[in-house]
Design a protein that fits this description.
Layout (H helix, E strand, L loop, with lengths): L2 H5 L4 H8 L10 H14 L2 H9 L8 H8 L3 H9 L5 E9 L2 E8 L1 H6 L2 H52 L4 H29 L4 H23 L4 E6 L6 E5 L2 H14 L3 H7 L1 H6 L4 E5 L5 E7 L7 E7 H4 L30 H6 L2 H24 L1
Antiparallel strand pairs: 1-2, 3-6, 4-5, 6-7
Helix pairs in contact: 2-3, 9-10, 9-16
Length: 383
């Protein structure tokens, strides 16, 4: 940076103090002080090092200025900073778009001393390091693929033995029901996995939502046919507060609510339940109730002949009421709830399970099992 540009970062008083200019001449303009300072720096470059040390923060480069001076990319600047190759004087913050952003300020002398040869060497070292890491990653991937293949082979063998044990019982419809229940369970877990991804994905969230809906739709088809078998036992779970409320206050009640919130600290629902008698009778307030919104149908698939296997499925009432009978005629079941809204039961598929239960294979296995059980049900219906 040109000397004149350098002194723009310093005040007139700082220049006078550093170069020990006489106080009686302090009435001179800053431009005059700068000219004298530049002459001193030209005669004695060592003074520049002291100047950088004295005013390290005032003369520091911003990330943008650093990249412009070095002719490097943002990625390179960040990498060299993390590696300790660029000296950071301090970190500053700025509030932008509702959040606090922290960024480094770089020591001017350190940056100006860097040569193109040094930076080129850093780039060569980085490429060599990447090459080594790629080779290591390929070796690890090769080992992982081999281990994963062994896991899948072991599972395939165990699965064949399990299915064979079901069919050895002699009841083909029972075995087919267990097959479908088994793969419907894994479909449900993949559906929940796509639900999780759709909540966190920056891109392709719509695709995850579509896959979630597709898998839940297949799950529903599976439990519908399982319910038709003698091995599917249906019951109903109703929580303490099963209904979902929708409330819109009229202007008068909204103003009243704001007073309650200010004086009593009540939220919308606290205010509503404290005053629901008057709000329900208000002709301008809107109160709607979705009955049993948080209730669930519970389908359990088991058989006393094969007691070691038991499958269970929970389906939200708003969805399952379309194909299951009225809950009033069903036995009640109690469950400990998870704090997970509508999908309070079940879990995501684990990382290790994804190796064995590949998404595409689960779909194919489910389709085969569904077709097989459907054939048994149709055959029984015609007899």
């Amino acid at each position: 940076m040109a000397a004149k540009e350098l002194f723009k970062c310093l005040t007139r008083e700082q220049i006078i103090d550093f170069f020990k200019f006489p106080v009686e001449g302090s009435q001179n303009k800053k431009a005059d002080m700068v000219e004298k300072a530049i002459k001193i720096l030209n005669d004695n470059p060592q003074v520049l090092i002291s100047l950088y040390e004295k005013f390290a923060k005032e003369l520091a480069f911003s990330p943008y200025e650093c990249e412009q001076l070095l002719g490097c990319t943002t990625t390179e600047r960040r990498r060299w900073t993390n590696d300790g190759k660029l000296k950071v004087v301090e970190y500053q913050t700025i509030n932008k778009y509702g959040r606090t952003i922290t960024y480094p300020m770089f020591e001017r002398g350190c940056l100006e001393a860097l040569s193109l040869e040094i930076m080129d060497q850093w780039r060569v070292e980085h490429e060599q390091d990447l090459k080594v890491k790629r080779i290591e990653a390929q070796q690890k991937a090769k080992i992982s693929r081999k281990q994963n293949e062994e896991l899948r082979k072991q599972f395939a063998m165990e699965w064949k033995q399990t299915v064979a044990s079901w069919y050895k019982q002699g009841d083909l419809a029972q075995a087919a029901s267990f097959e479908l229940a088994y793969w419907t369970m894994w479909l449900s877990r993949w559906a929940k996995e796509h639900h999780r991804k759709s909540r966190t994905a920056i891109k392709h969230s719509r695709e995850y939502v579509d896959m979630e809906q597709k898998f839940y739709s297949m799950k529903n088809e599976g439990i519908k046919i399982l319910y038709k078998t003698q091995y599917g036992k249906l019951s109903f779970y109703r929580p303490v507060e099963p209904d979902k409320w929708h409330v819109t206050f009229c202007p008068e009640h909204f103003d009243d609510f704001k007073d309650w919130r200010k004086n009593c600290g009540l939220d919308k629902w606290g205010y509503f339940f404290q005053n629901q008698k008057w709000i329900k009778n208000c002709k301008d307030c809107v109160v709607e109730i979705e009955k049993d919104y948080y209730s669930l149908y519970y389908l359990e698939v088991n058989s006393p002949v094969i007691p070691e296997y038991r499958f269970s499925f929970h389906t939200p009432f708003p969805i399952a009421q379309l194909f299951f009978p009225s809950p009033e005629n069903l036995p009640r079941v109690n469950h400990k709830e998870q704090k997970d809204g509508l999908f309070r039961f079940g879990r995501n598929i684990l990382t290790e399970e994804k190796i064995i239960y590949k998404e595409k294979e689960v779909v194919e296995k489910w389709q085969d099992a569904y077709m097989k059980l459907n054939l048994f049900i149709e055959a029984e219906a015609t007899n």
